[in-house]
Specification:
Number of helices: 2
Radius of gyration: 9 Å
Structural class: alpha+beta
Number of strands: 4
Helix content: 10-25%
Oligomer: single chain
Strand order of the largest sheet: 1-4
Order of helices and strands: EHEEHE
Largest sheet: 2 strands, antiparallel
Shape: globular
Length: about 55
């Protein structure tokens, strides 16, 4: 199950820099995770300073 970024994202980019699959990119309102590319490793969730990343 892939992860998703909710509206609590402050667009700091910490998650994108840590994603080993390169599945995270900046979206219109906040960063977004490409579910097809996500490895479901949880690295992004552990890195997020606002706790805005959760399993989809």
């Amino acid at each position: 199950m892939a992860y998703k970024i909710n509206d609590g994202c402050i667009s700091c980019g910490a998650c994108a820099g840590e994603c080993p699959a390169g599945a995270i990119s900046e979206g219109a309102d906040h960063f977004e995770i490409d579910e097809a590319t996500c490895l479901d490793c949880g690295t992004c969730a552990a890195t997020c300073p606002t706790g805005s990343i959760e399993q989809a």
